[in-house]
Amino acid sequence: MAEKIMPHEDHDDLEKPSLDEHVEHTGEALWTDPRITTFTVEEQKKIVWRIDIRLVLTLGFLYMISLMDRTNLGAANIAGMATELKMNDKNNAYTVVSVVFFLPYAFFQPVATVVIREIGPRRFLAAIVLFWGATMIGFGFVKNWQTMAGLRVILGALEAGFYPGCIYLLSTWYPRYQLQKRNAVFYLIGSMASAFAGILAYGLMQLNGRAGLTGWRWIFIIEGVLTCVLGIFSYIMIVDFPELSPTSWNFLNEKEADFVVARIEHDRADIQVEPFHLGTYLRNGLDWKIWGFSMLYVLTTTNSYAIAYFLPIILRDGMGFDIAKAQCLVAPPYVAAAIVMFVQAYYGDKWHLRGPIIVFNAAMGILGLGLLGYTHNQALRYFGVFLATTACNANCPALVTYQANNVRGQWKRALTSATLIGGGAIGGIIGTTVFRAKDAPGYKPGILTCLIANALIIVITAALTLKFWRANNRVRAGGKMIEGQAGFLYTY
Q: Which residues, in sequence order, are CB contacts of 102 under 8 Å at separation 6+?
């Protein structure tokens, strides 16, 4: 018979947390709770793996198509869209079409996290994916850039609930020190879209002339159809929140569901959802660390969106590569970013580290942008692309885990997810406006903006670390509780 889990054993994700860095008041309760000890170590791992497949992998593939759909403008632009729709330096149409996405994307996020809590993630996420896929198909038939801008507004409104909804849903299913690996895999799968979207776009461009449509239109049409298919499939795979009846999940039995709930109760004691009250929900915004997390995400997504939207253009206009090479050379830096973000996530969870990883990535971003913007050797500049791309993309899962680890309560968690990803929308607006066509080929204002953003990440993370360190010392000395929970300590 398989051996039952014992307190002194080390079992990777299932290892016993340090009482100095975890929820101290639980003591040995976690390791004597019959809802947990009824399963062997191997059985526990199998339950967690089944959750990973249903949640992390499914959401990751949806995020992949989401990133592909919102950032394929760069590929379409150099494939002939700008010429056909009369986008030029005078009307600045490409920047307008890029930016208008982020206005509804930011505005609707707080509302979306309330809606997903009320109607359930499976119905909500599957529906918005299906609808934005249909919108993407429409992109392939527009006659002018103004119509495309209008469709981008609709796309922003539909996608507003997706990313914060996914981050919120993941944070409700996993203990704090198993979360960054899951966030990293979710983001890693999504990053593959950025890595290979250029190659896919180049392939779809070869359909030029089929059915009387130019190649850039096929990029939107085929990717839109793929989005609709994944939206339908996601309704089967996505599961609802862990405190709901397991009959709504159809992949865990009652005892396995109790195991999931018990882990969250011992980790942060916020499994139960209080009734929604608008005033209470908004009062969570009085906690200034929420806005610190949001600002960090503004700054890192300023970099990530700038690179996603403009890297093919920089490679073509700024570094002199032809269209085929510009599309394909986007991939290797994103592959490197995926490897780095997962390694960081593994050790971040293992060592309970968040802030130092974020600071390291920001410093790497400064170095990479410096090489890209202020050297003339093409090999060095492309190496700078690797560093800058890795830095901002690896910081995204690190930051969403950083905020999830340091808040309690379902509605506060929902608001924090919304403000964080809403900050990402603001970063998107900045990132898509600082790289201007008139600044080619050096794009110095855009490079400088991203450099400053990385420097500010280091400053804000240092300020939060100081706050968290002082608060933890206060709790250890018997002072005021953190987040209203005895023994709860910040992770930094």
A: 156, 425, 426, 428, 429, 432
Rounded Cα distance, 221 and 134, in Å: 9
* Strands (E) located in 263-375: none
Interatomic CA distance for residues 232 and 234, integer angstroms: 5
User: Can you read off the two tokens belonging to residue 395?
Assistant: 């910081």
Residue 361 predicted with pLDDT over 90: yes
Three-class secondary structure of residue 286 per DSSP: helix
Residue among 432, 485, 337 at smallest CA distance from 96: 432
Q: Please work out, in degrees rounded to the nearest 5, the angle formed at the alpha carbon of residue 393 by the alpha carbons of 387 and 397.
A: 140
Query: CA 139 to CA 168: how far, in whole Å?
Result: 30
pLDDT tens-digit series, residues 298-343: 999 999 988 877 787 788 777 878 777 877 788 889 889 989 999 9
How big is the chain, counted in residues? 492
Can you tell me the distance from the alpha carbon of 82 to that of 88, in angstroms, rounded to the nearest whole number? 7
Position 312, amino acid:
P
Peptide linkage before 441 cis (omega within 30 of 0) = yes
Question: Could you tell me which CATH number the domain at 38-268+282-476 has?
Answer: 1.20.1250.20
Mean pLDDT over all residues of the chain?
Answer: 86
Q: Which amino acid is at 250?
A: N
Phi-psi region of 22 (alpha: psi -120 to 50; beta: other; left: phi over 0): beta
Exposure string over 385-412, b if 16+ CB within 10 A, otherwise e: bbbbbbbbbbbbbbbbbbbbbbbebbbb
Question: Do 157 and 104 meet the contact criterion of CB atoms below 8 Å apart?
Answer: yes
User: Residue written as tokens 């066509």?
Assistant: 437
